[in-house]
Amino acid sequence: MPNSPVEGSERAPALSHLRVTLDSGRRRPATGGLPVARLRWAISLFFALDGFVFAGWVVRIPAVKERIDASPGMLGLSLLGVSVGSVTAMLPAGRLCRRYGNHPVTVVTAALLSLSAALPPFAHDAVQLGLALVLFGAAYGGLNVAFNAAAVDLAEAIGRPILPSFHAAFSAGGLAGAGLGGLLAPHLGPRPHLFLLTVIGLLVTACAGRVLLRAPVPRRPGSLSRDHPEGVRTRGTDSAAGLRPLIAVYGLITLCTAYGEGALADWGALHLSDDLRTGPGVAAAGYAVFALTMTVSRASGTRLLERLGDTTVLVAGGLLAAVGMLTGALAPQTWLVFLGYALTGTGLANVFPVAVGNAGASGGSQGVAVASALGYTGILLGPPSIGFLSEAFGLPTAMTTIAVLAALAALLGRLAHRAHDSPRNPPPPTDRTPRHHLMRGQHP
User: What is the pTM of this model?
Assistant: First the structure.
């Protein structure tokens, strides 16, 4: 990662040691800096751990469903606990980050996530499963807030667009968790499997946490903390009202795509095991295919955007995901379902990050907040909606709603492009803070 110029006349800190400032805005001595490579490695490990643990739980949903003998509707209500816990914990986690710092909160919530992953297999009915998943979701949501804040701080400090690489680490962790689950599912029940995830998670937390706890929050020299009133920059409040419809469109795109990601994660393996009568290993491999294609697409997302542009990635990604999900939901053969999942992962991978990034470019922090809130609403709605629809129409038909919303995201992407180019929408004011590289690549 070579040194490069940053905004104004400042230069990026040397990679060997990074000058940092604390949340209070006070500067640390240069000797108190931590090598950027180590800090980036540690944060990436927490992103990967998050995906690893979550995917490990997802691939065991069919086994837990069978253990508690839950109907699709009741299972849908239980799975809602993850989303409820996540959304409920996000605002308190933000306050904890402001009070105690992003790094300590990252370590604590990662430990809680690892511990709570062992709880679902001990549930005896859908109610107990839902309560266990509320705890799991709360840790998951808190960790997402904390490590995203830590990643943004590091990206700001070195002045480089590194945030997508962290989310690629999340996808890689999901791939590893799904792959391990596929290997272990035929031989281990959900209790020993998820207990193993707890042990691995605590070991990773202890290893990466040591680095993170020694490192204060990095800042560029001369910059102020975002929590300091004078350190907050906003984009032209005079033009904000005119940009609200455009921001809302990008927010709806995040809702459509997050619905698909959450629903497929919870129901993709179950579709293979129940509707195509595959074994637990094959069902787990289906989600692994989805995770693999999403990982590869996110790893190359920056280069893809530079070559094709935001609108093409939004529209083509949405349409590709729609075709893929129709194939995955309705195909009668396992290999076609795998192909559909692969196309869906490829299509959805960069739509959400592009939409959130464009919302931030149009409306600053307010635009990001609107788009992110709508995105998490999609995650909240996806799993239970599929559960209720499957009760009435069957799971394959219910999963076609993912394709419908992906196609809607493509249409909204085209409309957003036209609205952005309209003379009635002047380009957003600029400031010295490069926002585009901070939010692109963010995950629900």
Answer: 0.67
With the CA atoms of 298, 299, 305 and 310 taken in that order, what torsion angle do they form, in degrees rounded to the nearest 10? 10
Identify the residue whose tokens are 């349409």. Answer: 319
Which residue blocks in 101-217 are alpha helix, DSSP H?
A: 102-116, 126-158, 163-184, 190-214
Bigger pLDDT: 237 or 88?
88
Domains of the chain listed by start with CATH number: 33-220 (1.20.1250.20), 240-444 (1.20.1250.20)
Give the DSSP letter of residue 275: I
Instruction: Give CA–CA dist 372/85, Å, rounded.
Output: 16
Sign of the torsion angle spanned by Cα atoms 405, 411, 412, 417: positive
Taking the C-alpha atoms of residue 415 and residue 9, their distance in angstroms, rounded to an integer, is: 38
Query: For the segment 2-18, what is each residue's pLDDT rounded down to a tens digit?
Result: 444 434 434 344 333 33
CA distance 50 to 352: 18
Token readout for 443 is 């995950």
Which pLDDT score, from 0 to 100, does residue 299 have? 84
Contact 250, 359 (CB under 8 A): yes
Judged against a pLDDT cut of 80, whether residue 389 lies above it is answered with yes
pLDDT at 219: 65
Dihedral sign for Cα 400, 173, 410, 415, please: positive
C-alpha to C-alpha distance for 360 and 363, rounded to whole angstroms: 5
Report which DSSP code applies to 271: I
Question: How far apart, in Å, do the first and last CA atoms of the chain sit?
Answer: 27
Calculate the CA dihedral of residues 32, 38, 41, 43 and round it to 10 degrees: -10
DSSP H or E run through 63: helix 61-68
- Between the alpha carbon of residue 279 and those of residues 155, 166, 182, 190, 387, the distances in Å are 43, 33, 10, 15, 21
Query: How far apart are alpha carbons 153 and 159 in whole angstroms?
Result: 10
Question: Is 439:360 a contact under the CB 8 Å cutoff?
Answer: yes
Q: Where are the alpha helices (DSSP H) in 271-394?
A: 280-299, 301-308, 310-330, 334-348, 351-393
